[in-house]
Amino acid sequence: MSSLDDQARAIIRGNDRGGYTLPTRGLYPYQWNWDSAFAAWGFATFDNPRAWDELDTLMASQWDTGMVPHIIFHTPDPGYFPGPEIWRTGQTPPTSGITQPPVAATMARLVWEMDPEAGHDRMAALYPKLLAWHRWWHEVRCTHGPAAITHPWESGRDNCPDWDIGMAGVNGADAGPYERRDTGHVDPEMRPTKEDYDRYITMVNFGRNAGWDQAQVVADGPFLMADPGITFMLLRADEDLAVMGRALGHDVTELEGWAKALRDALPLIWNEELGAYDARDLRTGQFANVLGSGAFLAYLADAGNPTLDAQLMRVWDSVSYGIPSADPEAAIFNPRKYWRGPTWPVLNALLAVGLRDSGRTDLAERLRAETESLIRQHGFYEYFDPNDATPCGGADFTWTAAIWLTWAG
Ligand code: DGY
């Protein structure tokens, strides 16, 4: 047993608050939606029941609408902004008013496959809740075809260049006074800018003033963009949920219909000029015209093609470690700034699932080895400089520890 395995388990246990896990202490002191799904995958390697508890706690905060919020504020913590007093969603426990990438069904399938007998009843109980969340995505957020986000935080890839054209239309002057807390935990150079934050808070203010009414946020909110990353994660998760639904004896016609509609919509996010899947402003139809790591999640949903293969190799071969979150040849590339260049172990793990499933096992192994090297050199950081391996963001990160146990180590 390697000591890094021990360290990874200790990080996850150390971030465990009883039924839910913090992404990292200090910077992210609550339960985050997609972080929790990856935490469950990690838990499943050494404590399968606890993996199901993590998913249960996440889905217990599902709204009546079916939406599953991106943060659940179980215990107040002044170290994070914007906290529950800013979101004011009226939920118990308090939650944010936006969602995050729907990877929970994909992670539930991976957890279930690790111990099918023990997981049967746990998955049976979770199934209707996951189905309701997927229904929310399809009925509320896929009305233009691909999956739409109303705030960059919903993408999980907060400040990636994909959102720059949408962000340009948000008036940050409406944010009002506020005090950031993230830059007290992490080098500000590795975090989004003040201009980004002004716009993030303006979007939160809009949602709160709309009483978090989705129809209003989608129709009139300051930001509405098609997210290739979520589109592929949702499509994959629909298919994973359908596999589990069939195994549980459910009629999965509805899920199959959603997956087909989403697959039929993929040409709408293919940017011929860029030669890649691309984000798109749904109000103007304009493409972002930048290659982001979300495009490569196409492999998760069996939606790759030779042009995308060439783009993948171009961006990957121009750095030393992992798949960068932005195109190294783009002017905006910054190898240490959050989603504008660094490589993210958790995303590498998800991309590797896609590469493996699409038959590119050699590439999946290369990605694993490069991610392993980053963690061996520096520990379980949130993200890394893909050129020189400098560790960035939060340390002792739950999902980095989780993917070490399931994949990288
Ligand atoms: C943050 O606070 O940086 C988060 O990414 C928002 O979810």
Please report which band the strand proportion falls in: under 5%, 5-15%, 15-25%, 25-35%, 35-45% or over 45%. under 5%
Question: Which geometry do the CA atoms define?
Answer: globular
Number of helical runs?
16
Element-by-element helix/strand order: HEHHEHHHEHHHHEHHEEEHHHEEH
Alpha carbon gap, first and last residue = 11 Å
Helix/strand/pairing category: mainly alpha
Strand order of the largest sheet: 3-4-7
Main sheet specs: 3 strands, antiparallel
Shape-level CATH architecture of the largest domain: Alpha/alpha barrel
Number of strands: 9
Average predicted local confidence, pLDDT:
97
Uncertain stretches: none
The CATH class of the largest domain is identified as Mainly Alpha
| Count of discrete structural domains | 2
Q: Oligomeric state of the chains? A: single chain
Tell me the helix content. Answer: 40-55%
Q: And the CATH topology of the largest domain?
A: Glycosyltransferase
Bound molecules: (2R)-2,3-dihydroxypropanoic acid
Q: What would you note in describing this structure?
A:
The chain contains 16 helices and 9 strands. It is mostly helical. The chain has 2 domains: 309 residues, Glycosyltransferase; 92 residues, no CATH class. The strands form 4 sheets. A 3-stranded antiparallel sheet has the order 3-4-7. It is globular, with a radius of gyration of 19 Å. The termini are close together. The model has no long low-confidence stretch (mean pLDDT 97). Bound molecules: (2R)-2,3-dihydroxypropanoic acid. (2R)-2,3-dihydroxypropanoic acid binds next to loops.
